[in-house]
Specification:
Helices cover 30% and strands 26% of the residues. It has 329 residues and is α/β, with parallel strands linked by helices. The strands form three sheets. Strands 6-7-8-3-9-10 form a six-stranded mixed beta sheet, with helices on both faces. Strands 2-1-4-5 form a four-stranded antiparallel beta sheet, with helices on one face. A hairpin with a 5-residue loop joins β12 and β13. α3 runs parallel beside α5. It is elongated and about 80 Å long. 35% of the residues are buried. InterPro entries: AAA+_ATPase, ABC_transporter-like_ATP-bd, ABC_transporter-like_CS, ABC_transporter_ATP-binding, P-loop_NTPase. One of its GO terms (molecular function) is ATP hydrolysis activity. Pfam families: ABC_tran.
Length: 329
């Protein structure tokens, strides 16, 4: 059962993991590449370290190599060159040890449609050679709001509930690393919110979470670090907040007292955009620049006789930064 604070009990998962530190890696990828038989290079040499207990978001357009990278780490796809270790175990030589530490929620909903929720999740635990543990399965189902559906056949569930069953299967053997490949694709907003609350509790209990998502605002809100992959190349890995600070631009918006027909020539040196109705001026500036130019702009606005009623700022979203990064490549 949940404790009074609503947190995930520490008994739910295998949590030998300690709090994340910069020198406590759980996954280490070195020089990994992948070229398929037909000659298609899905991954260029990749070096990546995932820290224990963090939420790491892997972003990239369709076909970028996200699923290939995850599948290789999880032992589903054979690697090319390079090496991968999970908790110090090589994914090829120590397959059983690494696979037992990993839970995977794939994009596809692959379950036995005629089996019950309880039997499906319990069977997944047995695949790892673990003895039955009804209390753990019950707790997983309760935390995923599946307890009332435990005797339902999978075929009777909604798409969102089937997605929850996939997560329950991945947690059945108490993994210390959980991969979520587009976990909220096609899921309604309420269920998406519930899933992310669960992910946060899992992270707080010591589980390392690696997720791919098309909902970039979720990565911005959830992830400790972000990796951007495009055309098989890992472009960038950065702390989410640091990435926003390094690459983000800010916009200063002035709500004008009187509408303008056009930006005066005296202000042409500034990167200003006038709204269609002439009531707002937007100034874009680099947060890393030595001088933002705002003080000079405000002075020149006053000299031009332009008054404003209000002023506000907005920083670029992670989505805008991501699009810029991909386009630059």
């Amino acid at each position: 059962m949940r404790n009074p604070a609503g947190c995930l009990p520490m008994t739910l998962l295998h949590t030998e993991a300690s709090a994340p530190t910069a020198v406590d890696p759980v996954i280490v990828v070195k020089g990994l590449d992948k070229t398929y038989a037909g000659g298609f290079q899905a991954l260029k040499p990749i070096d990546l370290t995932i820290r224990r207990g963090e939420i790491f978001a892997l972003l990239g357009p369709n076909g970028a190599g996200k699923t290939t990278l995850i599948s290789i780490i999880c032992g589903i796809v054979n690697p090319g060159n390079g090496s991968i270790t999970v908790d110090g175990h090589d994914v090829v030589r120590d397959f059983r040890a690494t696979r037992s530490r990993i839970g995977l929620v794939p994009q596809e909903l692959t379950t036995d449609a005629f089996e019950t929720v309880w039997n499906t999740v319990s069977f997944s635990r047995g695949l790892f050679g673990l003895p039955p543990k009804p209390a753990h399965i019950e707790q997983v189902l309760r935390d995923l709001s599946l307890w009332d559906k435990r005797n339902n056949r999978i075929m009777t569930l909604s798409g969102g509930m089937k997605r929850r069953v996939m997560i329950a299967k991945a947690l059945s053997h108490e993994p210390s690393v959980l991969f979520l490949d587009e976990p909220t694709a096609g899921v309604d907003v309420e269920l998406r919110r519930d899933m992310w609350n669960l992910v946060r509790r899992l992270r707080d209990s010591g589980v390392t979470i690696i997720l791919t998502t098309h909902y970039i605002e979720e990565a911005e809100d959830m992830a400790d670090r972000v990796g951007v992959i495009n055309k098989g190349e890992l472009i960038l890995v950065e702390q989410t907040a640091t990435l926003m600070h390094k690459l983000g631009r800010k916009e200063l918006t002035l709500q004008l007292h009187d509408p303008l027909a056009a930006v005066p020539a005296s202000l042409s040196r500034y990167p200003l955009a006038l709204s269609a109705d002439g009531t707002e001026l937007t100034y874009t500036y680099d947060t890393q620049a030595e001088h933002t130019g705002i003080t000079a702009l405000l002075g020149d606005l006053a000299a031009a006789g332009i008054r404003f009623r209000d002023i506000s700022t907005r920083q670029n979203s992670l989505e805008e930064i991501f699009v810029d990064l991909v386009r630059s490549r």
